[in-house]
Design goal:
Elements lengths: L10 E5 L4 H11 L4 E6 L12 H10 L3 E6 L5 H15 L4 E4 L14 H26 L6 E5 L7 H4 L3 H20 L6 E6 L7 H7 L12 H12 L9 E3 H7 L16 E2 L14 E2 L6
Helix pairs in contact: 1-2, 1-8, 3-4, 4-6, 8-9
Length: about 290
């Protein structure tokens, strides 16, 4: 059985799947025949961001999967409960949970408004905890059940906290959920793992809110995350849990050698992402623009 066939009929629920990395992962699993429930807020087109939850569903179904778009704000418990219930009613259960939704604000403490602090903790930490929590009873009855969060390795280095304390705490909070869930659910055979990019990924968030479109040539495509996620989710849940994967390191260990296919521009140097531990092997050279020294 090839790896695509492992996802035939798999029942997936993903937060923030209307664009970018989340949509790329959903489309990758859809090519294997997965049934995918998308939880996102974007019901109407955004002036600066491409796509809606409904256009994402169309793209997923064109890839061969089945899509269930559910307009959901994951900050609200009743909306999460309703989305999980609708997913189970439609698909008959849940096998895979992907915590992809995330809010970002790269500001130092004195410039971080409390409404942004609350947003990041409500989406990143509380949303991850709550979606995982509500899905656990269904994962217990699932087929090779996995929880996957898009969050970084737990590296308690001050260099990550000093520039953007609130955001860093919220992203590491997502990873702490994985750390705890992996051990809590080990006896149930439910895997909990995290995945993080080594380089910056070309998404709308990069172009619109962080570094501007001039960063795109120095990025990799979201497909590298999708390929890495597919590998993680195809592994035996009882044996592969509690890992904090870096995308290119994982792919390299699986025998992938051509990383040029993921580059936005092979003539430009790659820029290293936040929160990547210093001892992470470099599959391709990366410039650390956040810490040039």
């Amino acid at each position: 059985m090839n790896s695509d066939e492992l996802f035939k009929g798999k029942r997936v629920i993903i937060s923030g799947g209307s664009r970018g990395i989340g949509l790329s992962i959903a489309k990758k699993l859809a090519k294997g025949g997965a049934k995918i429930s998308i939880l996102a807020k974007t019901a109407e087109p955004h002036p600066r961001l491409p796509g809606t939850i409904f256009t994402a569903a169309d793209e997923i179904e064109k890839c061969g999967g089945k899509a269930l778009p559910i307009v959901t704000d994951i900050r609200h418990e009743e909306q999460i409960k309703s989305a999980v219930e609708k997913t189970v009613d439609e698909f008959g259960g849940i096998d895979i949970v992907i915590n992809n939704a995330s809010a970002i604000s790269l500001t130092p403490t004195t410039y971080t408004e409390m409404k942004r602090f609350d947003l990041m903790f409500s989406v990143n930490v509380r949303g991850t905890f709550m979606l995982s929590k509500e899905c656990i009873p269904h994962l217990m009855k699932g087929n090779n059940p996995h929880i996957l969060s898009l969050s970084p390795p737990l590296d308690m280095s001050p260099q990550w906290f000093a520039p953007s304390l609130a955001y860093t705490m919220s992203k590491f909070g997502m990873s702490q959920c994985i750390l705890g869930l992996s051990e809590e659910l080990r006896s149930e055979g439910i895997a909990a793992n995290a995945l993080w990019p080594h380089s910056i990924i070309a998404t709308a968030a990069i172009g619109n809110t962080l570094m501007g479109e001039e960063a795109f040539p120095h990025c990799r495509k979201p497909e590298i995350i999708a390929d890495a996620a597919k590998i993680i989710l195809s592994k035996e849940a009882k044996k592969h849990t509690g890992n904090f994967h870096i995308d290119d390191e994982l792919l390299s260990n699986e025998g992938i050698t051509d990383f040029s296919i993921y580059r936005m521009d092979v003539t430009k140097p790659l820029w290293k992402d936040f929160f990547v531990p210093k001892n992470t092997p470099q599959v391709e050279p990366l410039l650390d623009i956040m810490n040039p020294n």
